Amino acid sequence: MKKKGPKRHRNFQILCVAVFTLLTVFILFPFVLMAVSSVTEENELLIHGYKLFPKAFSLNAYRYIFQSSSAIVRSYGMSILVTAIGTTVGLSMTVLMAYPLSRKDFRWRNIIAFIVFFTMLFNGGLVSQYIMWTQIFSIKNTVFAYLVPNLLMGAFNVMIIRNYFANNVPFEIIESAELDGAGEWRTLLSVVLPISKPILVTIGLMIGLAYWNDWTNGLYYINNSSLYTFQNLLNRMIQEINFLSSGEAAHYVGTGIAIPNVSLRMAIATLGVIPILMVYPFLSKYFAQGITMGAVKG
């Protein structure tokens, strides 16, 4: 009698490959459609809609974006600077908050963990935050307006890293390090963090994505164009396009202006996602492992 085990296992692998290939196509399709639409003639999009193989191609959307190349380069540099500093400082503060909460010998860890969790459920609202940041901390029209409000350290990230430390860093290793004469900083830097690389990369990527995609802080706290990030500059371009495309613009310019609208939005989205697509493949191997282990209940 023949064993059906190997054949059944091979058929299951083929099925898995087919399913995940189909899912990959579904995931990549919107990105491909977005990129193609960004180089499609505006009238073609308005008349025939979005297509993978349009009849008329055009780079007008990118020409409109890059007509002020100096502003683009400056805003890109500001976005990279804010993302780099925000990710480094945010991840460091998150780790420094999560590490003592994961230690069983820390007396007040449950009380502080409750306070951290409480901030996930309630907040003071946008108006009170705006008054606090602008009138008390005076961050308006400064780089700190991008770094501090709502993004520097989140309770969710703290709880994820705390759970990872508690479940994946044996307390016996920490005790052994202390017996060998290591202090708290040496234990954290030389023992805990090297073991926790997956969760650090995962949370670092999440923080970096939040900083790179953020445009609300710039909208609320920045009105100096020289401090615009890439997202804020593109958002300003969209507002200008919407105004010029509206009937209200006719009172000022007299006649309609042939400018891209739909294709411009696709071009903006394409330019915004390119840096993330370049970085993510190098970090993806840590992402699934880190977020899965960190989500285990501690």
Protein architecture, described:
This protein is mainly alpha-helical. It has 15 helices and no strands. The chain has one domain (39-294): MetI-like (MetI-like fold, Orthogonal Bundle). The chain is 74% helix and 0% strand. α1 packs antiparallel against α15 and α5 (109-121) runs antiparallel to α8. The longest helix is centred in the N-terminal third of the chain and has 34 residues, at 5-38. It is flat, with a radius of gyration of 25 Å.
What is the CATH H-level superfamily?
Answer: MetI-like
What series of H and E elements makes up the topology? HHHHHHHHHHHHHHH
Instruction: Provide the number of structural domains.
Output: 1
**Helix run count:** 15
> Percent range for helical residues?
over 70%
According to CATH, what is the topology?
A: MetI-like fold
Please state the average pLDDT score: 82
Q: Please indicate the percent range of residues in DSSP E strands (runs of 2 or more).
A: under 5%
- Could you describe the largest sheet, including whether it forms a barrel? none
Distance between the termini: 49 Å
The assembly state of the depicted protein chains is single chain
Structure summary, number of beta strands: 0
Shape: flat
Structural class: mainly alpha
Q: Spans with pLDDT under 50 lasting ≥5 residues?
A: 294-298
Radius of gyration: 25 Å
Please identify the top-level CATH class: Mainly Alpha
Q: Which CATH architecture is right?
A: Orthogonal Bundle
